[in-house]
Amino acid sequence: MNLERLAALKVKNLSFIRDNFPALYPLLNEHSPEKKRLNADTQKDIFQLLNTETGQILINNAEEAAESEVLTFINRCHRNNRLFTVATGFRNTFTIPRFSAKKLAEIVDESPLTQENFNFYPFDNHIPMLCVMGVGLGLHIEKLLQSVSVDHLVICEKDKDEFYASLFTIDWEALFLPLINDPHRSVTLMLLPGNNDNAAFGILWNHLVKQPPFFPTATVFYNHRGTNRNEKILARVRKDITMYYSLWGNYDDEINQLNNALHNFRAGIPRLRKPLSTHTDTPVLIIGSGPSLDERMDWIRAAQKKAIIVSCGSARDVLRRNGIHPDFQVELESDYVAAEAYSRTVTRSDTNGTTLMAAAQVPPKIFALYESRQMYFKDSTAMASLFSENNVVSGCTPSATNAGLGVFLHLGFENLFLFGMDFGYIDPEKHHSKDSIYYTDENPEDLIDSTWDNLEQGMPTPGVQGNNIKTIPFLYTGKRRVEVELASVMNTRTLHAYNCSLGAKIDNAEWLNDIGVFKEKIRNLPGDYKSALTIIRQAGDPVYQEEQDDKLKLLEDAIRRVSTRILNELDHMEISMSSLSDTSYRIARFLEEDIYQKLKTIYYIFRGSVWFFLSIGYAHAYALDGEKRTEFIKLWLKVFKDFLNEWPEHYCSIVYRDVSVENDPLLTKMITEAVDGV
């Protein structure tokens, strides 16, 4: 072991990092070890990593430790030569009889891969995407890349001392150049915040979610030295995969939403006002219709005319039946089912004194029930970049309670009290308030979807009272979005959030279970209720016809461009797994690095459906082999091309129609139903 050689290796590595990972270079070049240092034992010819504060040897014989760790990892990450990651969609996954869903259904329904014969993916010493938590001395990464082939490598480190030590032990250039120089492969180095696990998770998550179809279908995680902090971050990633899939969206839903919005634009609905500069300290109650709302009516009554009362979704019926008139009603749902539920429970007289804040895509029939109304644009929709005037509301999905929270965070309010936001249930027969539409004579059984079926099989989640309650993916996704949005805002400005529900524990929201404490907080908070109410109701401008025409043409051009580019990629694809993988990678990168960067949220009209085509195609082909794989790839290629060729004209056939609200068949069908003539 030559010490001069180690010093020269450090210089070489810094030069390589400067040229290929420039954001990391100053962090490492100017770094001096603080708590950990490398010990090169020239007598024993071994590397050690030492904690200089405690004298503890963190890694003794680094070479030997790396060999043992990598062998253990490889044995654990696969069984019977199969790579166990996550499943895919099978027959009956895409049941909606609309344009893109029918194409996806054609693929999975004709695929030889079924839920019954699915046995995950072949290992064959190949990992499509590997996420390594911890650089350490880097020897485990070197051993790993000598043992398995990796297409896309993501390396995360939270400790600059360890990253710095690796500069003396590993030739990063020799290790990474094969990945960097191959246009079908990639390597990412990330230095995560060492003292903020939430921020570290957020940075890693934001990178992974832009890597379909490899994440999550073919992503394997490696926790170097099995550290608890890294394992907690990885556990959060695994836990949020369900939420990830649910937030993809799809073209069928997007075009349905756009059609609704066009009718609302023509009706002159004004846009949501810009964030407030005053009175944001006024307390706000965000109210969902979870089962615990029944036990909190006295709390809400005590806050009337002191705090702004915001009803979300079906909470409107619960509050009405209990004699409480909200200041604002927030709606999100774009499906016809929402309009039908409204028409059975709400009249124009019920809405007097309440301002509707509804997503632009909400059915026109709902806007017609309110005299005072504003429309907002959620962040995960193409319309946000098209019509929002740089005034987009984040965190609005998947439920109206998320939207209510998102709107009032967007407006700038600092003191939020969350009611009926249970995000779970104790009794499967009581998943909403007893006064909600689900349990009254107005129950629209023909309109309630399957979300609330089979609740007995719910998964556990921690409750506020120390017990576990049950939840389902839809509710859990809502909870996680609330937690993420609260954390994001708390990092940038003053915010106090209080969970006044009796359901799931909500991170970043203090639980209140004493009405006396609640009343005292409301009483002592500053803010002017009447002034705040007046300012919020000062709406923005509507979307005029000229703006509509310009933006619809821009979107049409974008769809034609994306279709043409992806078709070109597919035309050059070979019928093989490697070519499918490479093509999918290029398509995903095109959407992220070209379309999203240039068109921002417009790309949401493409993302969901294209990601589903890539994910389904990749997963099914990967799980199959031999002739079955070949025939499936041919099927996938044909159907995907059909979709892309038909896509621009389908868009035009919807948005350029001259049809009234009364005569539009899209306004009288649920998203789960086919529409004749469209």
What are the SSEs and their pairings?
Layout: H1 3-20, H2 25-29, E1 36-41, E2 46-51, E3 57-59, H3 62-77, E4 78-79, E5 82-83, H4 99-110, E6 121-122, E7 126-133, H5 139-147, E8 149-157, H6 160-166, H7 172-181, E9 186-191, H8 197-208, H9 214-217, E10 219-223, H10 228-239, H11 241-246, H12 251-266, E11 284-287, H13 297-303, E12 308-312, H14 315-321, E13 328-331, H15 336-345, E14 355-359, H16 364-367, E15 372-376, H17 382-387, H18 400-411, E16 415-419, E17 459-462, E18 468-471, H19 473-490, E19 496-499, E20 510-511, H20 515-524, H21 529-536, H22 545-571, H23 577-599, H24 604-623, H25 626-655
Parallel strand pairs: 7-8, 7-10, 8-9, 11-12, 11-16, 12-13, 13-14, 14-15, 16-19, 19-20
Antiparallel strand pairs: 1-2, 2-3, 4-5, 5-6, 17-18
